[in-house]
């Protein structure tokens, strides 16, 4: 099969069914996502400002990437009761539609955000020491992987107008928190108006992509009560 014959959409469907449709691989997937979440939390524990500088209920707004991974882990965990059936046939109800939509939006937004933020000042990140290789290539490539995770969610999830509106509202609240109060993810430079504007644009873009990627709840063939 040549490159022109490759169907990405079908390949993602097959991957999702194969890896998230059986118990052992789904558990491994959840464990890996949970481990990545803990690595992200560790970064914010040792950053300046740190999680300890904020009230507990604000942690999800400050730890943007760990929040994305936590939402993805919860979203994928909803497939556990569906084992033995096709992933595409997983039941979806309104609360799950909100969860899946938030997971998708956060993964897309902060996967792209990280790549953009590092490349606005590559001179501060690109290098050849072990630390520099991780600070640029390691962080950029792992966060670009968020986009691959986001591709999976619409294969078993659905959305609603309410979920899309809720996701956009929370994303914009997060932007105000990050740039209005100065709690954007720690960088080696001061975030200015350009990065703030890009971040707000990413909030709208991620929600728009969610509206295109997901089936609407009313259109899904099977929903949970």
UniProtKB/TrEMBL annotation:
Q: Which UniProt keywords apply?
A: Membrane, Transmembrane, Transmembrane helix
Q: Does the keyword rRNA processing apply?
A: no
Q: What InterPro entries does UniProt report for this protein, alphabetically?
A: DUF1405
User: DNA damage as a keyword?
Assistant: no
Q: Which Pfam families match?
A: DUF1405 (PF07187)
Where exactly are the transmembrane stretches of this chain? Answer: 26-45, 65-84, 96-116, 136-153, 165-185, 191-210
Q: Which PANTHER family match?
A: DUF1405 DOMAIN-CONTAINING PROTEIN (PTHR40042:SF1), HYPOTHETICAL MEMBRANE SPANNING PROTEIN (PTHR40042)
Q: What is this protein called?
A: DUF1405 domain-containing protein
The organism's lineage is: Archaea, Methanobacteriati, Methanobacteriota, Stenosarchaea group, Halobacteria
């Amino acid at each position: 099969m040549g490159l022109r014959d490759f169907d990405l959409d079908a390949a993602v469907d097959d991957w999702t069914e194969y890896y998230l449709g059986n118990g052992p691989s789904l558990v491994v997937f959840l464990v890996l996502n949970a481990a990545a979440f803990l690595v992200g939390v560790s970064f914010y524990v040792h950053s300046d400002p740190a999680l300890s500088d904020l009230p507990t209920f604000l942690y999800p707004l400050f730890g943007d990437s760990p929040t994305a991974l936590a939402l993805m882990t919860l979203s994928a965990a909803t497939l556990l009761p569906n084992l033995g059936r096709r992933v595409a046939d997983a039941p979806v109800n309104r609360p799950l539609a909100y969860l899946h939509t938030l997971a998708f939006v956060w993964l897309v937004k902060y996967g792209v955000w990280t790549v953009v933020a590092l490349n606005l000042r590559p001179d501060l990140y690109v290098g050849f020491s072990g630390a520099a290789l991780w600070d640029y290539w390691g962080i950029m490539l792992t966060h670009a992987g968020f986009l691959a995770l986001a591709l999976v969610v619409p294969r078993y999830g659905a959305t609603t107008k309410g979920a899309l509106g809720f996701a956009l509202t929370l994303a914009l609240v997060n932007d105000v928190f990050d740039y209005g109060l100065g709690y954007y993810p720690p960088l080696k430079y001061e975030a200015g108006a350009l990065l703030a504007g890009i971040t707000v644009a990413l909030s709208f873009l991620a929600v728009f992509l969610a509206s295109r990627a997901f089936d609407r709840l009313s259109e899904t063939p099977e929903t949970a009560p």
